[in-house]
């Protein structure tokens, strides 16, 4: 580093609690001006986000190549393609989403009318994750803007090239009086969390999720927590095994080499069927990534040395080191771990205690497949759960029995791309949901409004309270027309 670079770094202004407070204050002034509430401003900013991604597609691909060695196709499909779709869905539906929803009123408030008016919450904070740094940053921002909020985005420092590019591009394309980016790590995030926000949207792990929720509780700030968990895959024997194996591989290793919140975390199948499933997975893995997957250009690397060490520790556990039936190769210098299958892993092993978030796939076996639902439900609720079967009754039992953020039958991860479905967790896998209109709703307050005229001002609600008024009030509370008529005429 040159002296000039060092001097510039030393002069760089520290982002502390005071700076964070000033930032929020500026954004509250902008929000208070009313500019974010107009349909025109919201549309202009969503269009600006869309243009940002379209204009800079190659820069985004390059940033993710730098941060994760991400194959360009995965970036184009799972980051750029999904983001473009979110923008287009929002632009198409926003005018309708913003309209007040007329609702019925009852005889108790006659004559009256009522509606539910969606209004922006105010100034919101989005803290995003490193594994899909563009999609998981900008997708919630679409919802925040569409709902009419001012927003601060805090990208993950673990994906530094993506974080830097996000800060640069949002600074160039967006209305910076209402949309800002704060880069940094723990200190900057802590400074932001000390402030009062109108909502906090966090994507990441449960440990930090608890920190975010604790900070939010001090100000009674509502939160959306998009976390993760051990997403299971239950595999029946009556399936197209080749297709199932390909779809499991696509959701596990074809999504950032297992570093995805809805990536299959472990498989459950019967003891009898397990060898066939392992063979099918081996065959398809070799077709996809070759005999030396550490050299494959189609697999992302592990994000950093800390995560590499964490995954290595899982593999070196005495309870599982002898259970590897495929893969297990590592290259620490390149932060690469090959797709790895482990068979008959003990349920009390380290690899089964927390979300793996990497290219390791344990396979548990049971005598009867129905037992798998008890295995899943004995742990914390996952973000996603998958079932491969052609058995209708088993499918119905799966949907009725397994609690997860989302379920998918005969595929993996694709429920993420259906914008008419809410995406979010339950229990320890998160709280709140987004995608499509659900993103708009996540950053809106549904304001109840009742309209009455000066006509029909009955004396029944005012003192003095007589027996007749009491009978009428009981009838009104009961809601029945016949009861009201009986009360009016004094009939018991």
From TrEMBL:
**InterPro entries associated with the record:** Ald_DH/histidinol_DH, Ald_DH_C, Ald_DH_CS_GLU, Ald_DH_N, Aldehyde_DH_dom, Aldehyde_DH_NAD(P)
Which Pfam families does this one have? Answer: Aldedh
Tell me the domain of life. Answer: Eukaryota
Q: Tell me, which GO biological process terms does this entry list?
A: aldehyde metabolic process; response to abscisic acid; response to water deprivation
The Aldehyde dehydrogenase domain sits at 18-449
Q: Which residues form the active site?
A: 226, 261
List the signal peptide residues.
none
Any idea which GO molecular function terms this record carries?
Answer: aldehyde dehydrogenase (NAD+) activity
Q: Which GO terms describe its cellular component?
A: cytoplasm
Name the reaction it catalyses.
an aldehyde + NAD(+) + H2O = a carboxylate + NADH + 2 H(+)
Q: Which PROSITE patterns match?
A: ALDEHYDE_DEHYDR_GLU (PS00687)
Taxonomic lineage of this organism?
Eukaryota, Viridiplantae, Streptophyta, Embryophyta, Tracheophyta
Q: What is this protein called?
A: Aldehyde dehydrogenase
Family, per the entry? Belongs to the aldehyde dehydrogenase family.
């Amino acid at each position: 580093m040159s002296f000039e670079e060092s001097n510039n770094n030393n002069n760089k202004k520290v982002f502390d609690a005071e700076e964070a407070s000033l930032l929020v204050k500026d954004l509250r002034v902008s929000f208070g001006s009313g500019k974010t509430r107009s349909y025109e401003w919201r549309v202009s900013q969503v269009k600006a986000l869309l243009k940002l991604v379209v204009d800079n597609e190659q820069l985004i691909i390059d940033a993710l190549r730098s941060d994760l060695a991400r194959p360009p196709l995965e970036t184009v499909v799972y980051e750029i393609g999904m983001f473009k779709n979110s923008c287009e869905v929002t632009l198409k539906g926003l005018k309708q989403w913003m309209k007040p929803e007329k609702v019925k009123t009852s005889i108790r408030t006659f004559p009256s009318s009522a509606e539910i008016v969606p209004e922006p919450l105010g100034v919101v904070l989005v803290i995003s994750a490193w594994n899909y740094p563009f999609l998981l940053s900008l997708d919630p921002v679409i919802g925040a803007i569409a709902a009419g909020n001012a927003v601060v985005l805090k990208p993950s420092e673990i994906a530094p090239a993506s974080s830097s590019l996000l800060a640069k591009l949002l600074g160039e394309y967006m209305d910076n009086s209402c949309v800002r980016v704060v880069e940094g790590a723990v200190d900057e995030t802590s400074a932001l969390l000390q402030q009062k926000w109108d909502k906090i949207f966090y994507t990441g792990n449960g440990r930090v999720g608890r920190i975010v929720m604790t900070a939010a509780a001090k100000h009674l700030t509502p939160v959306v927590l998009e976390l993760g968990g051990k997403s299971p895959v239950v595999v029946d024997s009556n399936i197209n095994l080749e297709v199932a194996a390909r779809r499991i591989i696509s959701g596990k290793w074809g999504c950032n080499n297992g570093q995805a919140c809805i990536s299959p975390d472990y498989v459950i199948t019967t003891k009898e069927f397990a060898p066939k499933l392992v063979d099918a997975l081996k065959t398809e893995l070799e077709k996809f990534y070759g005999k030396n997957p550490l050299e494959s250009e189609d697999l992302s690397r592990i994000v950093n040395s800390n995560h590499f060490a964490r995954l290595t520790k899982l593999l070196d556990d005495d309870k599982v080191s002898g259970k590897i039936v495929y893969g297990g190769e590592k290259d620490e210098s390149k932060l690469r771990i090959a797709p790895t299958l482990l068979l008959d892993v003990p349920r009390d092993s380290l690899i089964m205690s927390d979300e793996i978030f990497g290219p390791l796939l344990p396979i548990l076996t049971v005598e009867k497949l129905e037992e798998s639902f008890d295995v899943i439900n004995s742990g914390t609720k996952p973000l996603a759960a998958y079932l491969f079967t052609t058995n209708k009754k088993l499918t119905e039992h799966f949907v009725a029995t397994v609690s997860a953020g989302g379920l998918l039958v005969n595929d993996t991860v694709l429920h993420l791309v259906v914008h008419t479905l809410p995406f979010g967790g339950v229990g320890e896998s998160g709280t709140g949901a987004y995608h499509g209109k659900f993103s708009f709703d996540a950053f809106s307050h549904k304001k109840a409004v009742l309209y009455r005229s000066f006509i029909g001002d009955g004396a029944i609600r005012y003192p003095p309270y007589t027996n007749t008024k009491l009978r009428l009030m009981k009838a009104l509370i009961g809601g029945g027309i016949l009861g009201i008529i009986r009360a009016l005429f004094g009939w018991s």
